[in-house]
Amino acid sequence: TDTPPEEMAGFLAHAEARFLIVHAARHVERMAGHAHQMPTVTRTFTLLPDHDASLDRLLETVTTWPGFEEQAASIEPERLATVIYTSGTTGRPKGVMLTQANFGHQVACCPRALAIRPDERFLSILPPWHIFERTVEYVALTCGCRLIYTDRRRLKEDMARHAPTFLPSVPRIWETVYDGIRKAVSSAPPVRRAIFAAAVRVGG
Predict the structure, then answer these.
(1) Residues 134, 57 within the same domain
(2) Secondary structure element (H or E) that encloses residue 148, with its range
(3) Cα end-to-end distance, the chain, whole Å
(4) How far is CA 177 from CA 1, 121, 156, 174, in A?
(5) Where in the sequence is the domain holding 149, given as residue range(s)?
(6) Are 164 and 178 within one domain?
(7) For residues 188 and 1, which has the higher predicted lDDT (pLDDT)?
(8) For the range 140-147, what are the long-range contacts, defined as Cβ-Cβ under 8 Å and sequence gap of 24 or more?
(9) Same-domain pairing of 115 and 165
């Protein structure tokens, strides 16, 4: 993430987070100087550390947690599941509290509404702190689907490589893709430009 470490430390302190989970060791280094701002954080895990023992420790923590299954089964629907922070474009970022029931409803309804099968392939381009992306992840994992992560730079390549059946996104992403296509078409021969214009009209 490009979020400044001091701002991230503020989020962790506000949420009273106990664990800090990052995808690369460099993010641990970025946060190290702000440990005093997040006093509730007791452990840090790295998910993609060239298979450092950190990931093994995380998996062991979950799989050997005494009474984990019983505790999970006893969680009430209205219990807090996550706190997602807004972008702060209209002021200071705010923590949005979402319950187990919030996600449970999506996980229960989306597979039926969208007829999702276990062999579906989801190509995820949104950041995991985006509520839509978080919901997509939970739905895909619940249904046993394949979940592939990409970004704007690799989107075209990954679409060709993985042939996704679902590509959850937001309008801004599609506008960027469309603008890129239009820019490429603008320098194409007249016949290709005419074909593109006709395709756009047919597609509405």
Answers:
(1) no
(2) strand 146-149
(3) 36
(4) 22, 20, 9, 5
(5) 80-169
(6) no
(7) 188
(8) 140/116, 140/166, 142/107, 142/111, 143/111, 143/116, 143/117, 143/118, 144/118, 145/116, 145/117, 145/118, 145/119, 145/120, 145/121, 146/119, 146/120, 146/121, 146/122, 147/122
(9) yes
Determine the residue type at 20. Answer: L
pTM above 0.90, yes or no: no
- The enclosing domain of 98 has a CATH number of 3.40.50.980
Per residue in 4-60, pLDDT tens? 888 889 999 999 999 988 877 788 888 888 888 999 999 888 776 555 555 677 677
Q: How many residues does the chain have?
A: 204
Structural domain includes residue 201: yes
Confidence category of residue 175, pLDDT binned at 50, 70, 90: confident
105 and 152 share one domain = yes
> What does residue 12 show for φ and ψ, rounded to 5 degrees?
-65, -40
Residue with tokens 């970025």: 30
Asked if residue 118 belongs to a domain, the reply is yes
| Backbone angle region of 169, left / alpha / beta, with phi > 0 → left and psi within -120 to 50 → alpha | beta
